[in-house]
Specification:
The protein is mainly alpha-helical and about 525 residues long. It is built from 21 helices and two strands.
Length: about 525
């Protein structure tokens, strides 16, 4: 079974190479990409079943090097679950992009560049999730970031190049901080293997541990778009092509959150910065959602809600109990799926209405009722209405926080409730204006204009693009993702039990001896 672990990374890289070779043959590239991500999803599902049934992680030492000297790929329940979810999301977005490319040609997503870059992005994401040492985690980040630099500037428009430059600069700063932290840790402890670091970190003075801890947190917080290091995200994501924005919003920030979860629960178990994380979580929730309320463009609204909901995950991490960690994992899975689905739905709105400005889009309920449903279901899910997965995840986080019961904890819970209500307000305001407001109804036009005139000066409030036909495959892939969001609610019991078992195991990470034994058995 361990032999399957390296395939999670090598298959997307091999697929990227094949797609690059067949750069002038669209159908071959599409087929290679779909088959690659489908096979990875199946392998990840098999690995998830194996590690959950056996209760032990799978580990592989690449090249047969003895641990801790070689690169270790490590799959436990958490890594396997996130690879499964990520591969499903990547596959759905890929199908969406195939429909867009078939309808529009290479204007938005040049196929010869898109497919190799997309598969390299997938390889970087999977590598980050299964990395067993900090340097390989850094390599995973760099793989996905290099691919994202290409994807975010596809089309080479002025706005994409400008925002792409900001994204690249911020990402490079984060990478430099991460690499500096790795160098400092290696200099202090002589290893970057996470299992060995868990054993050795306690040998350092508390002050040194704190410095190393904060260096890694700072690097990961930039990648996760945690306030105040989230300034780059609302301007960077909305300008990219719809499928690129969807996969970025769903996955890239969660890789940063995942890195924080790994380091907090495994390497720095005895170095407490939870009060700081609670304050950061509160600020991220509130500032992010206030930004969303002040926006008039759907992709910017979703970008700010993305920032605000990262705060829920930081909140769960800061509570630092098995219950809160399980709730955090569940909420992360929920947010990956729901946020991606909403961006895909907005991509359909843009094609149907020729705009994503809520001041310009109207009458879509009658013109495109299917699209109305595809937006409405994930919107109320993200807002946290019962019985959807958003409500389940938030309730579990609040319950875990109330069990600790400190004043600051209650303050964050109140902020989380307010954030959830304002999320619902921002998304339903967009729903009301874009779907319910009729194009031919002029009787209340002035009253509506008065109520939303404060949004006239919001960024991209007057944006207008060309109306385009929506291919069936784009609608089908979005509908498939909506079905997955519903599945998170229908199968919430089994999924939450799995997440709870992950939360119970995270405070007790595998030791170096156990890792060596696992690799020895696997080889």
């Amino acid at each position: 079974m361990s032999a399957l672990v390296p395939l999670l990374v090598t298959l997307p890289l091999l697929g990227a190479g094949i797609a690059l070779i067949f750069g002038r043959r669209r159908r071959v590239q599409v087929g290679v990409s779909i088959v690659t991500l489908t096979v990875v999803a199946i392998i990840a599902g098999v690995l998830l079943y194996a590690v959950d049934a056996n209760g032990m992680p799978l580990a592989v030492s690449v090249g047969g090097w003895p641990i801790p000297f070689g690169i270790v790929l490590y799959v436990d329940r958490l890594a396997a679950l996130l690879v499964v979810v990520s591969s499903i999301v990547l596959l759905a977005v890929l199908l969406f992009s195939v429909g867009q490319g078939a309808a529009d040609g290479d204007e938005e997503t040049p196929v010869s560049i898109f497919h190799p870059s997309y598969l390299i992005l997938a390889a970087g994401i999977f590598n980050a999730f299964i990395a067993g040492d900090l340097f390989n985690l850094y390599v995973g980040f760099e793989i996905l970031l290099v691919a994202s630099y290409v994807l975010i500037t596809l089309g080479s428009t002025e706005s994409r190049i400008r925002t792409g430059v900001v994204y690249i600069v911020v990402s490079l700063v984060s990478s430099i901080l991460f690499l500096a932290a790795i160098a400092a840790i290696y200099g202090a402890l002589g290893t970057v293997n996470m299992a060995q670091l868990a054993d050795r970190m306690g040998e350092l003075p508390d002050e040194v541990q704190l410095v190393l801890h904060l260096m890694l947190l700072l690097a990961f917080s930039i990648k996760a778009a945690v306030f105040p290091l989230s300034f780059w995200l609302p301007d960077s994501y909305p300008t990219a092509p719809a499928p690129v924005t969807a996969v970025f919003a769903g996955l890239l920030t969660k890789v940063g959150v995942y890195a924080m979860i790994r380091t907090e629960t495994q390497i720095f178990r005895d170095n407490d910065v939870n009060q700081l994380l609670l304050i950061v979580a509160l600020a991220t929730m509130v500032v992010g959602i206030l930004g969303a309320v002040a926006q008039a463009e759907l992709k910017r609204i979703l970008s700010f809600t993305l920032v605000s909901h990262i705060g829920y995950m930081i909140f769960g991490l800061a509570i630092a109990t098995p219950e809160s960690l399980g709730a955090t994992i569940y909420y992360m899975v929920h947010h990956i799926v729901v946020q991606t689905t909403l961006f895909l739905a907005v991509g359909l709105v843009e094609r149907r209405a020729g705009s994503t400005s809520i001041l310009k889009v109207k009458g879509l309920m009658r013109a495109a009722p299917v699209l109305a449903v595809l937006y409405f279901i994930p919107a109320i899910n993200l807002g946290g209405l019962p019985p959807f997965s958003g409500f389940i995840g938030k309730y579990a986080l609040f319950d875990a926080g109330a069990a600790v019961g400190t004043p600051l904890m209650y303050a964050v819970i109140v902020a989380g409730i307010i954030t959830s209500l304002l999320t619902l307000y921002a998304l339903m305001r967009a729903w009301n204006l874009s779907f319910w407001r009729e194009e031919e109804d002029h009787s209340e036009e002035s009253g509506v204009a008065d109520r939303i005139s404060y949004l006239d000066d919001a960024p991209a409030a007057g944006i207008q693009t060309e109306r385009r036909v929506i291919p069936r495959i784009m609608t089908a892939s979005t509908a498939g993702m909506v079905a997955v969001t519903l599945a998170l609610t229908i199968f919430a019991g089994p999924l939450y039990r799995l997440c709870a078992s992950i939360g119970e195991a995270l405070p007790y990470p595998v030791t170096l001896t156990q890792l060596q034994e696992e690799v020895g058995d696997g080889n």
